[in-house]
Specification:
By secondary structure, the protein is an alpha/beta fold. It has one domain (7-27, 38-317). The protein is 23% helix and 21% strand. The chain is built from 7 helices and 16 strands. A hairpin with a 6-residue loop joins strand 11 and strand 12. Helix 2 runs parallel beside helix 7. The termini are far apart.
Length: 320
């Protein structure tokens, strides 16, 4: 497998770290108001996804997903490139237009729109129900090489694993990741997110489940009625933003390239204004279902999206 290696996305790991600092300061009787350094994601002079007018997100479904689950997640990907009432998924995604490369270009999603690409079902668990990290790249490579998905250097190949699939280091500080493979002479960005509902919802589906650590406030109701899928959407948003703004580990990030903080992972645990450890922030609530959300999508869908770093303000941007 070629490419730049994995960038793991830790669901509530950053939130847990912030809570522990908060807790320790409180125990010492010190003020918990800490003046943090400005958050800056440095640009490392590498390519962004800017070579073509459209960005396709191709989906590989590994394991058993219901038709309803696939439609929810597919609608989210469509919402990245389609208008909806504000606050919208599309307006959240357009924040990436501030991430410019050496030619002052912006990522493809903002040139025209992001599109839901082709989809491939692997309901037979072709590599079994226990995967190593290297198997993720292998599955993407096999799918592309077989012709089931096109070779497209301005696309992201998103592999989604069902809740009965164990992935190496899943739930152990990682809810998803992105990397790249080389097919011929073409480097292809890809990403992976797992369904954590039966394995670690407290880590990877918060705030729709009580967190593993920290304040145990009641979980929020998921906007699409599925803790696993609504949790996956949070992590899909995270890895896609990372894949667009840091596709080959030479784009925008802070820290070490082996464990970088990227567009969304730099803003852990923040979903609305007033967020603090254990509290996702002030959100919108659907009057009918009581579910919490902060973004509208296509077909009347509602979603909860994490904060994203805004280069213009050098701060974490929320929709509400």
């Amino acid at each position: 497998m070629g490419g730049s290696g994995y960038r793991s996305i830790s669901g509530s790991a950053g939130l847990v770290a912030k809570f522990l600092v908060f807790f320790c300061l409180a125990q010492l009787g010190l003020s918990v108001l800490v003046n943090e350094e400005p958050l800056v994601l440095n640009y490392h002079n590498g390519p962004l996804l800017t070579s073509k007018p459209n960005l396709d997100v191709h989906l590989i479904w590994y394991g058993k997903f219901s038709a309803v689950q696939r439609s929810i997640l597919g609608d989210f990907v469509e919402s990245l490139g389609a208008g909806a009432p504000l606050p919208s998924v599309f307006s959240w995604w357009k924040t990436t237009e501030g991430y410019k490369d050496l030619s002052n270009e912006v990522p493809a999603p903002t040139k025209t729109h992001t599109r839901l690409g082709k989809q491939k079902l692997d309901e037979a668990y072709s590599l079994g129900k226990s995967l190593k990290r290297t198997d993720i790249g292998t599955l993407v490579l096999r799918t592309v090489s077989s012709g089931a998905l096109p070779v497209d250097d301005n696309a992201v190949y998103l592999l989604l694993t069902s809740q009965d699939v164990i992935v190496e280091r899943f739930c152990m500080g990682s809810c998803g990741s992105h990397a790249s493979i080389v097919v011929g002479k073409t480097a292809l960005p890809y990403a992976w997110v797992g369904n954590s509902e039966s394995q670690c919802p407290g880590q990877c589906a918060w705030p729709f489940h009580q967190p593993l650590y920290g304040p145990q406030s009641p979980p929020l109701l998921p906007p699409n009625g599925d803790v696993g899928i609504d949790g996956m959407i949070i992590n899909v948003a995270t890895v896609l933003a990372g894949a667009v703004t840091n596709p080959f580990n030479s784009g925008y990030f802070q820290g070490q390239s082996s464990a970088p903080l990227e567009a969304v992972s730099a803003c852990p645990g923040i979903y609305g204004t007033g967020a603090y450890p254990g509290f996702p922030g002030n959100l919108l609530v659907d009057n009918t279902t009581g579910a919490s959300y902060n973004a509208h999508g296509v077909k009347g869908r509602m979603f909860l999206l994490p904060a994203i770093w805004n280069p213009a303000t050098r701060s974490c941007k929320t929709l509400v």
